[in-house]
Sequence to fold (144 residues):
Amino acid sequence: MLTNVSPRSIADIANFHAHVYYDADRTRAEATTLHGWIAERFRVHLSPMYDTPVGPHPMPMFEVAFEVPLYGRLVPWLSLNRMGLSVLVHPNTERIRDDHLVQPAWLGAPLTLLVDGIPELSHNFRTAPVRPIEPNTTPTAIGT
Fold:
């Protein structure tokens, strides 16, 4: 785990991810509804629903990638509308492992991530700048 010698800047955050976890047999319907609600209300990049674990994520999930300015609207909205599902929200910085394990915010019950596959640092974070989030949703709901 890396430690800070001085405060980090918000400018270190390229964007955010929210991972919404569900049980493929018991809570997929709730996750599908939430996925649709997010698409209707927020300009974000939504992944497909992964019905089997992917990467360090221990259970099925979908990912919501969003820009820093949207955090103050999306995360409180998720807090109120997550339908009992656990949600991991983390920044994306050059410190990939810390982003997932030290810096995250959990809505609902936290899960134990499979950390063996998470590198400590992104070796190309500074040399290959992170592209802005390209939304794949066009919100249609009025008033979130």
Summary: The mean pLDDT is 88. The chain has one domain: 12-117.
